[in-house]
Design brief:
Blueprint: H1 4-13, H2 23-31, H3 35-48, E1 67-73, H4 80-88, E2 93-98, E3 109-115, H5 118-132, E4 138-141, H6 155-159
Antiparallel strand pairs: 1-3, 1-4, 2-3
Helix pairs in contact: 2-3
Length: 160
């Protein structure tokens, strides 16, 4: 079970991460606890499977990555793990996952690429195809960026 402090910690971690040399200390200070207590609880969440990862969300367009494409590939099932390792090793790949194909859609493997322009995305996809030894993919370029929101848990704990 999570106590009130656990809920406050989780709520605090869903906001902007402090841009400071000691971000965990800043979060702990805002919660009026020690940095050691915060880190111990984060470790407990990880060990208990309550938290898988803690990471940043980069607003890619704001840092110059104006093009992004979802690449759909047709990968033999027995090679998906192998291909996944090749794909995710490339720094331009931010997502990599398998899905079931359909009668009118033979693609079963997807990667998300980010680059400065469409030509760079195409070059990356060609490089990935060569490295993974699979045929070219179909590239679905984003035309509009939708507002990104994530689930917010324990907002009521922030108010207490």
């Amino acid at each position: 079970m999570l106590d009130l402090l656990d809920k406050k910690i989780i709520a605090a971690l869903q906001g902007d991460f402090p841009l400071t040399v000691e971000p965990y200390r800043a979060i702990a200070d805002s919660l009026q606890i020690s940095e050691d207590e915060l880190l111990a609880r984060l470790q407990k969440y990880k060990e208990n499977g309550q938290m898988r990862k803690l990471g940043a969300v980069l607003k890619h367009r704001e840092v110059g990555y104006a093009a992004n494409a979802l690449c759909a590939w047709n990968v033999p099932d027995e090679r998906q793990e192998e291909i996944g390792k090749v794909m995710i090793d490339h720094p331009a790949v931010t997502h990599c996952y398998g899905r079931n194909s359909a009668p009118d859609w033979p693609y079963n493997f997807y990667t998300m690429l980010h680059a400065h322009d469409r030509e760079a995305c195409c070059a990356i996809a060609a490089e990935l195809a060569q490295n993974a030894r699979i045929p070219e993919c179909i590239m679905l370029f984003s035309t509009k960026e939708w507002k990104k929101t994530s689930m917010r848990y324990f907002q009521e704990a922030e108010e207490k």
